[in-house]
Amino acid sequence: MKPALYTLVPEQTIRSMAETFNACIDLPIQIINEVGEILVSVGDTPTFCRLFQKHLPVSETCEKLHISASKKAVSLGEPYIFACHADLNHIVYPLISKQSFLGSILVGPFLMDAPDSILISDISKRYRIPMDDALELYDEAGALPLITPARVNHISHLLFYLFSNLITESKKELRQNSQKLLQQSRISESIQRYKNGTIQKDSYPYEKEKELIARVKQGDVSEANAVLNDLLGYVLFSQGNSLEAVKPRAIELCSLLSRTAIEGGAPTDSILKLNNQFLQNLQQINSMDTLCHKLQEIVETFSESMFNYIPSRNSEIIKKAMLYISDHFNTPLTLEEVAAHVHLHPSYFSTLFKNSTGSAFKEYLNMVRIEESKRLLANTDFSIIDIAVATGFEDQSYFSKVFKKYTGLTPKQYR
């Protein structure tokens, strides 16, 4: 039966790449399938390995170890350097497609330190190797390739550069796995901070949510992701590792971010379509790390959507203006003040802003203010007049009029 790997990549292509790698690096390289069987082998297997394998128990085969290391590489999303039963080093790079493991590229064995009697003594005790065989292993250890750790890292990178594009989906999936691992690490750090703090489990950090929205409005993807991970850390800290308990928060956050993007000037029809797609995706997710990673994708998509549609020639000017509005919407902000901030004549700035965002300056400013007022109405017990003032409106009457225009409800009804 044809190996699954060969249904995606021709055998000759893989063999040619392995031969090229071996010719340049002078290390044995093997292509193994999903159960550890060798499909392609280039380079001589050291005598040391053949002698040692005679003493390996049936339960500790090289094939099993290679698959175990390959699965670790899948979770890391990158080449994985590991030591075998005989404490010899290898590098493994996994090949996957649509989350299916197809096999790996295996490089080695080699040593990163000169072999000594301790190496042989340790494995001899572990596997009860007779003295004569141990002495023979010691003699053969000197023939093993010796590579510095720095060069091993370069070889690991070369392995990635050479084979990462072998299967189109593989590189993307492994990158996602790497991003998931990093994100989970950041979330774990956040959980630990909450555990060590004084925040109660029933006190949802709306300030963090507010900060996330602000970062998204600014297009600051890196900081937005950092705040998201902190927020997710709190949710997992308070809800436990319950996917069904966390999903409603994720769906709520997705809708909130989509509204933020629309009110930030992004095309409504495009954002609504994206939001519907994301909501469907969230409902279908069945693992916590995938849910967290999808939220990160949502944050990045909505954050970028507010700026990508702006004509490139004026994007920096409009972005600067939008950031200024985001920071000063709670003041008696005027078109003239923002125009001065971006060094443009008010009349020209007004036209440029409308053409770039699709909204007049006053309309855009009111949308930003109403979004913040909705958050305050839903999450605080501030009076309506206090919320009106806090979001930059001159009086409660005008605030209520604008609020109803954008939401169809009065502030009291919305609350």
From TrEMBL:
<dbReference type="InterPro" id="IPR018060">
    <property type="entry name" value="HTH_AraC"/>
</dbReference>
<feature type="domain" description="HTH araC/xylS-type">
    <location>
        <begin position="319"/>
        <end position="415"/>
    </location>
</feature>
<dbReference type="Pfam" id="PF12833">
    <property type="entry name" value="HTH_18"/>
</dbReference>
<dbReference type="InterPro" id="IPR009057">
    <property type="entry name" value="Homeodomain-like_sf"/>
</dbReference>
<dbReference type="InterPro" id="IPR018062">
    <property type="entry name" value="HTH_AraC-typ_CS"/>
</dbReference>
<dbReference type="InterPro" id="IPR018771">
    <property type="entry name" value="PocR_dom"/>
</dbReference>
<keyword id="KW-0238">DNA-binding</keyword>
<dbReference type="GO" id="GO:0043565">
    <property type="term" value="F:sequence-specific DNA binding"/>
</dbReference>
<keyword id="KW-0804">Transcription</keyword>
<keyword id="KW-0805">Transcription regulation</keyword>
<protein>
    <submittedName>
        <fullName>AraC family transcriptional regulator</fullName>
    </submittedName>
</protein>
<dbReference type="Pfam" id="PF10114">
    <property type="entry name" value="PocR"/>
</dbReference>
<dbReference type="InterPro" id="IPR020449">
    <property type="entry name" value="Tscrpt_reg_AraC-type_HTH"/>
</dbReference>
<dbReference type="GO" id="GO:0003700">
    <property type="term" value="F:DNA-binding transcription factor activity"/>
</dbReference>
